[in-house]
Amino acid sequence: MAGLKSLAKDTAIYGVSSIVGRFLNYLLVPLYTVKLSAASGGYGVITNMYSITALLLVVLTYGMETGFFRFVNKQEENPSVVYSTTLISVGGSSLIFTLLSLLFLVPISNFLGYGQNPEFVAMMAIVVALDSFQCVPFAYLRYKKRPIKFAAMKFLFIIPNILLNLFFYVCCPWLLVHFPATVSWFYDPNYGVGYAFVANLICTVIQQFAFVKELTGFKYVFNKVLWKKMMIYCFPILILGIAGILNQVVDKIIFPFLFEDQTKANVQLGIYGAASKVAMVMTMFTQAFRYAYEPFVFGKNREEGNKKLYADAMKYFIIFSLIAFLGVMLYLDVFRYIIARGYWSGLDVVWIVMVAAILNGIYFNLSFWYKLIDKTIWGAYFSGIGCFMIILLNVIWVPKYGYIACAWASLIGYAIVTILSYIIGQKKYPIKYDLKGIGKYVLLTAVLYIASEYIKIDNILLRLLFRTVLFSIFMAYTVKKDFPLKNIPLVNRFVKK
Questions:
Q1: Residue 3 to residues 7, 78, 240, 306, 370: CA-CA distances in angstroms?
Q2: Is 241:295 a contact under the CB 8 Å cutoff?
Q3: Which spans of this chain does the record mark as coiled coil (predicted)?
Q4: Which helix (DSSP H) or strand (DSSP E) does residue 246 occupy?
Q5: 389-423 pLDDT, tens per residue?
Q6: How far apart are CA 268 and CA 255, in angstroms?
Q7: pTM for this entry
Q8: Residue 378 neighbours by CB distance under 10 Å
Q9: Spatial distance between the Cα atoms of 183 and 31, rounded to a whole number of angstroms
Q10: CA distance linking residue 36 with residue 274, whole number of Å
Q11: Could you read off the pLDDT of 134-178 as tens digits, one per residue?
């Protein structure tokens, strides 16, 4: 139980940087959707560009983050050598990527459809290269169990990024009208979406300089033998990572290529991307859990009873994921104000995106069986199958049904890989999950959500009150079954008094 408490504590702290940080970034969603209208397709450009960089981030880290955790926890390896070898490897490849991107900037920009603004591609190429390199010191902070420093470094990017976006999209237009001389020498009101990339670049550079302590004070050693072993271990992770991230972003990358009308594609992609942001609560929780769970799993691998811990962690992950699902879907009347009204037509995809995110989180939990037995090739198989299905369904459905096909394709793809990973995992590395208990939570969630949708209440206050009752039913069941009040220290002390 102590192990789960440690996991919960680290998840909560990592959640501060992930959940609170992304919540602050939510401030940018209404800002972008107001300043970049749905009809302009500007938010579609942001959605497309950040999806491409997400894929590149996986390619440029090529599984070394997981590889670092695997080898740094091996007794026969020197942690300092593992760290420096990982830094040199990822840093060198990121530098080569940057140079090649700048050398072939024009043809790359033309292919992606940004020939008129090649600087968009240049800025994001530098950003993704720096982000890839920074994954290593971030992983080092997790290994050293320094979640506070980890969170602080995340905020060092998040807060300046918000301030710069407010400066470019709110302050500069106002100053241009009232005091034009102050900003007219550098600010172009027609540059629009470009300022989002400028802000990102500036903040990423600032964050890089803040890693001085993690990048100095030790001898850099590149161990070729160790590096080869890490690459053999990480290559399948790279494949499954590419397939995994494609599962998340491929629809947004290929979407513009599935329409003859580029403007129409950007408009629809902008609506889909903005609506998906409402479901980001689930992604934030999954990411926070992942940050804590990866070092936790590899650290507990040599301990007895570890399978019981993994089973319990899966159950609690699903419980809190379902709480997040109900929290968003039952109060969608409130959460929809995160985006501008012009994007509300896409809110029908929110529940689909959230279910897909839950399945993705479950798949992540299941994925550790092949990582722990050093059979990461299985992950490549699963993710490859899921990616193929998602791409196939997008190609078939998107031209006919539009962006809602993207959401359904993702849900189906994640469902397939989750089922496959569970079935084969139970044969290779059996873990006794509480399927009956988990099933009851899923069934209760489905009943409550369906009730909220099919019982129509026109008055918004009464509707929210009714849905609060539904949410309370789920919370009461959770407390009764798995979180009895007597086990909560603060409540327990109060009862004893």
A1: 6, 25, 28, 9, 21
A2: no
A3: none
A4: helix 224-254
A5: 988 998 999 888 888 888 899 899 999 989 998 99
A6: 9
A7: 0.69
A8: 20
A9: 20
A10: 11
A11: 999 998 988 887 878 888 888 888 889 989 999 999 899 999 999
Is the model's pLDDT at 490 over the cut of 70? no
- On whether the CB atoms of residues 361 and 317 are closer than 8 A, the answer is yes
Angstrom CA distances, 364 to 21, 89, 143, 196, 350, stand at 22, 26, 19, 31, 21
- Please tell me the distance from the alpha carbon of residue 394 to that of residue 402, in angstroms, as a whole number: 9
Which residue do the tokens 């407390």 mark?
A: 479
Contacts 24+ apart (CB under 8 A), 92-96: 93/60, 93/62, 93/132, 94/60, 94/129, 94/130, 94/132, 94/133, 95/129
Question: In degrees to the nearest 10, what's the CA dihedral of 355, 60, 29, 386?
Answer: -20
Region 424-449: mean pLDDT is 91
Structure tokens, 2: 């102590």
Q: Cα separations (Å) of 26 from 13, 38, 205, 336?
A: 19, 17, 22, 12
Total count of residues recorded for the chain? 497
The whole-angstrom separation of Cα 428 and Cα 354 is 29
Instruction: Say which residue the tokens 């359904």 belong to.
Output: 408
The pLDDT score that the predictor gives to residue 306 is: 67
**DSSP state, residue 171:** I
Q: What is the DSSP string of 23-44?
A: HHHHTHHHHHHHHS-GGGTHHH
Does residue 60 contact residue 90 with C-beta atoms inside 8 Å?
yes
| 472 sits in which H/E element | helix 460-481
pLDDT > 90 fraction of the chain, expressed in percent and rounded:
32
Separation of CA 242 from chain center: 14
Domain boundaries, the chain: 2-487
Structure tokens at 186: 């550098």
Contacts of residue 177, Cβ cutoff 8 Å, sequence gap at least 6: none
Burial group, residue 116, by CB count within 10 angstroms (0-12, 13-18, 19+): exposed
Q: Which of 317, 331, 405, 410 is nearest to 361 (CA)?
A: 317
Contact 44, 273 (CB under 8 A): yes
Q: What is the DSSP string of 355-417?
A: HHHHHHHHHHHHTHHHHHTT-THHHHHHHHHHHHHHHHHHHHHHHHHTTHHHHHHHHHHHHHH
Cα-based torsion angle of the residue sequence 224, 229, 235, 240 in order, rounded to the nearest 10 degrees: -140
Give the amino acid at 208: Q
Is the pLDDT at 495 greater than 50? The verdict is: no
